[in-house]
Design goal:
Blueprint: E1 15-18, E2 23-27, E3 39-46, E4 62-64, H1 66-70, E5 80-83, E6 92-94, E7 100-101, E8 105-110, H2 116-123, H3 126-135, E9 137-138, E10 142-143, H4 146-149, E11 153-156, H5 159-201, H6 208-213, H7 221-234, H8 263-266, E12 269-272, E13 280-281, E14 287-290, E15 307-310, E16 322-325, E17 336-338, E18 346-347, E19 351-355
Parallel strand pairs: 3-7, 14-18
Antiparallel strand pairs: 1-11, 2-8, 3-4, 5-6, 5-8, 9-10, 12-19, 13-15, 14-15, 16-17, 16-19
Length: 356
């Protein structure tokens, strides 16, 4: 390889060469779809979506018959499959069984003195992925043809060192995978713990000991409701002439001095948002318009992917407001956030604002 390609320096004994020098490059071929005899057999027919398994590609959505694979290009096991056309350009897999691929994939079948696993790991490295991005042509879709692909550079070491690199990578990646799984388990456990703490907070268990040691200062919640009713009645709010009736027969038992009431009674106002379609839209400037996806699972406001609207009269969210998603997908439903300071934000009709 030449210096003008600006490739990084290599350890002593290593060399930059081209992909075509380490093995055969094969572009996939799709047998005619019009012939059903070509499909439904025992041979996997790999497409970019089948490469999600990475180092362990064994199966595919579509399969070829004996006749069908004869119409394609046979790939032996331990070939490195690289997507070279489309939005997922650079996606790479390592097939563990004999098969074939479609024309979106270029496969590297290494020579006997090149370790197949070494080729795969190099192809998923940042250096090689960068070379793919720097060399593909883009019209409507990114394309890296076979000619350009097989002339991309690869860093080559001696055969024994290839084996040492592969062994070390497999060891470290196994540890990383175990670490990721452990973190996922911890995250799930923390979420369960968080829900358990919230449950105990509102069934009285979290403050049970505190109530036992502060009996003399605890005021029944019913007294607080009466105070709220009188204050609002004095302001002329006629709906607060009587305390709300709540059927607690289907609700969990509460500690002594607690009481079930309605959210509408405790809140000053509960307002739905406004659909952006009724406002003048301007997605680059105007009033920030919060939508369900702007609240994450932790209850934080995320201002990425923010939309804007234009409206002269609207109620901006204020400090101490509570905002929750009242509709949309099950994953978003019920997500809630607390407004920590006065804002100039509006909010969509998929959200409800509680002013307390």
């Amino acid at each position: 390889m030449t210096e003008e390609q600006n490739l990084p320096p290599l350890p002593k004994g290593w060399v930059w060469i081209k992909i075509r020098q380490i093995g055969e490059v094969v572009t996939g071929k799709t047998p005619k779809k019009s012939n059903p005899d070509y499909y439904g057999g025992n041979y996997p027919f790999f497409k970019p979506g089948d490469l999600n398994s990475g180092f362990y590609v064994k199966s595919s959505v579509d399969r070829l018959s004996e006749e069908g694979i004869g119409q394609s290009r046979v790939l032996p096991e331990k070939s490195t499959l690289v997507t070279c056309i489309g939005a997922t350009i650079g996606k790479t897999g390592f097939n563990r069984v004999q098969g074939a691929s479609n024309q979106q994939i270029n496969a590297i079948i290494p020579h006997k003195n090149i370790l197949p696993e070494f080729v795969y790991f190099y192809c998923i490295s940042p250096q090689f992925q960068k070379e793919i991005i720097n060399n593909y042509s883009s019209t409507t879709l990114p394309i890296l043809n076979k000619s350009k692909f097989q002339n991309l550079p690869i860093a080559l070491s001696s055969f024994p060192e290839q084996g040492r690199i592969v062994d070390k990578l497999e060891e470290l990646f196994t540890k990383l995978d175990a670490g990721v799984k452990s973190l996922q388990n911890i995250k799930a456990q923390l979420q369960l713990y968080r829900q358990a703490v919230l449950k105990h907070a509102f069934n009285g268990k979290l403050t049970e000991e505190w109530r036992l040691t502060h009996k003399d200062i605890i005021e029944p919640a019913l007294t607080l409701l009466e105070q709220i009713r009188k204050q609002r009645q004095e302001r002329g709010d006629i709906k607060y002439r009587e305390l709300p009736k709540v059927d607690s027969s289907v609700l969990p038992n509460l500690p002594k001095s607690w009481i079930w009431t309605s959210l509408g009674y405790l809140a000053e106002k509960i307002n739905p948002g406004f659909p952006s379609g009724k406002w003048k839209r301007d997605f680059e400037q105007g009033i920030p318009h919060l939508r369900p996806m702007n609240i994450n699972i932790k209850g934080d406001i995320v201002l990425s992917n923010l939309k804007y609207v234009r409206r002269k009269d609207y109620d901006a969210l204020l400090k101490d407001d509570i905002l929750f998603n009242n509709t949309n997908s099950p994953k978003l439903l019920g997500k809630t956030t607390y407004i920590k300071k006065d804002t100039n934000w509006a909010y969509s009709n998929h959200m409800t604002r509680i002013m307390v």
